[in-house]
Amino acid sequence: MDEEYQHSNHDLDENESFFSEAESPGTFHNPFIESVRPLIELIDSLRLIGIDEDIGLPSIAVVGDQSSGKSSVLEALSGIALPRGSGIVTRCPLQLKLHKIKKGPWSGTISYRDNKETFQDPLKVDHLVREAQNKLAGNTVEICEDLITLEISSPDVCDLTLIDLPGITRVPVHGQPEDIGKQIKALIEKFISKRETIILVVVPCNIDIATTEALRMAQDVDPEGHRTLAILTKPDLIDRGAEADVLNIVQGKVIPLSKGYIVVRCRGQSDINNKIPLAKAMQTEIKFFRNHRYFSFLLNDGRASTQCLADKLTKELKSLPYLTEQIQTRLLIVQRELKNYEQGPPMEEEMMGPFLSKITMKFSDSINELSRTGHSKHINIYTLLRPVFKTWDMHLRETQETFAEKVKEMLEMYNEMHRCRELLTFTDYCEFERVIKEHVSDLQDPATKLMKRVREIVQNEFKVVCDSSFEQYPQLKYIVSNMINDIQSKQETKVEKRIKEFIHMEQLVFTQDKVLQQKLNDSDIPKKAGLDTSDVSHYENGGDDYNIFNSKGCALLDTRNLTPDKLALYYEIVYQRLTDYVPMLVTLFMLKDPAKILRHQTMELRIEADLVKLLSEDSERGCKRADLKQRLDRLMQAQDLISSRL
């Protein structure tokens, strides 16, 4: 094994161009970084327009146990000194955005919530980050999910965006809540569970990697390890003889990861105490790996040093095809959802009048169609009215039987209870007329109930059309709904009056002779009375011949025994008039006429109306449409940005 590593070291000596000592320490020189800079800038541009609210943008989340070397790795990549210390130092997610510039001074910007500050002194980073965390999480040891963004522009950094997360802890210290461990894990999972996030797990070389909580959490959300990259830190602290174990880990023999492992040696606490610059520390790192008996070949393989890590991370962010697909998919979803929200009212007041006319005309057309054919979006109104009319018809038929029973009962007890001053064997017509009048009078209440039920159905269907037509305009919907109520109330009064009038007319007990003659001819009553053709007179009226019983014929039929049958025939005439007339009356006054009145009144709404108030939208619906439009604009803008960079 030693010969293999010595051979690798010899190959490295022959390729001194790889991180030569002449190279400016701390500066990342790699042609690939230049090729991915447009991608990094594109991702930042997409974040700037807020597209990360709609799709998941590729990002790198750094996770690790406390004291795993997270801060050292981030320092090595960014060239800035981040807060250090014992316990939980990172108490808020920290988004570190690195921008490589060709020339110019170092510049930093820190932003969180409504705060934003730009500074030019790298030494202020520690203070400003701690200050931000104190404002967000309090001057304690608790954590907060609010994001702090730290942007660094410098010639000595790579183009990269990282998210530093709180270190995993198991035992709460003084002042921390008992569930601090669960809080931190929940915060970490919130970031690493996104499939677009590359998980950068930082693990010290001198511990058992199988017991690392950070790697276990990464495996939970990324079982195949397709988006997990492990960083092994502190290779200079491993025990002698444990180098082979580290190599087995790097080679994926312990816990395989698709993206693999990279070993780095960053500035330690002693280096900080000795005030060794980051640039010098990176130079020392290269010499450490170059001269290491076991790890030197890893440098040549691109699996060791902060420089290799930076190259690997920038390469991992190259995911434009996936971004394009994600944006197109989300764009289709938003466009489809936006169709469910009709176009809102115009912002210009002079355009509101025509717009109001347009939507009220559409409503009027729907009401007209409902009145004319019965059709609405969800049902035909006549399928609701027909059973009501059928119930009325059935009630009338049932009353025919009760009417016949009343007449028979009257005949049986006529002399005892109904005969007035007439002589014995004579019959008073008025007594039978009274039975008809009383019976017909009882039909007024069920006829009125029919009318009220029809009003309920029509009014509900009108309101359904109203709600669907003006759903997003609560004030307009309220006014039209009140119109419907008022119109139906007035129409109900008219119909109730007409029903009373018609019942009163039926109490006149009248029908044309010819109508009753036809009923008698179609019955077996003449046969029972022994009538023949000589008992029928022939008249001529305007050229039309018709037959009617003569006096003898009428005398034969005018017998008390035939009265129940004759009155039953007359009641059939009453039944026929009522069974048709009441539904026709109700349909005309409660459906047809109200539709015309409603259409007329809604079309007049524009006259002297407060258009702004009428067209004020429902807040929830308006906000939803506005949100969808904003999302649509963002997605289209993102699509244009990506197309322009291809």
UniProtKB/TrEMBL annotation:
The keyword Nucleotide-binding applies. GO terms for cellular component: cytoplasm; microtubule; nucleus; plasma membrane; presynapse. Keywords: Cytoplasm, GTP-binding, Nucleotide-binding. The keyword Metal-binding does not apply. SMART domains: DYNc. InterPro entries: Dynamin, Dynamin_GTPase, Dynamin_GTPase_CS, Dynamin_N, Dynamin_stalk, G_DYNAMIN_dom, GED, GED_dom. GO terms for biological process: defense response to virus; receptor internalization; synaptic vesicle budding from presynaptic endocytic zone membrane. GO terms for molecular function: GTP binding; GTPase activity; microtubule binding. CDD domains: DLP_1 (cd08771). Residues 54-326 form the Dynamin-type G domain. Belongs to the TRAFAC class dynamin-like GTPase superfamily. Dynamin/Fzo/YdjA family. Its main location: cytoplasm. This is Mx Interferon-inducible. Residues 560-646 form the GED domain. It is found in: Cytoplasm. It comes from the Eukaryota.
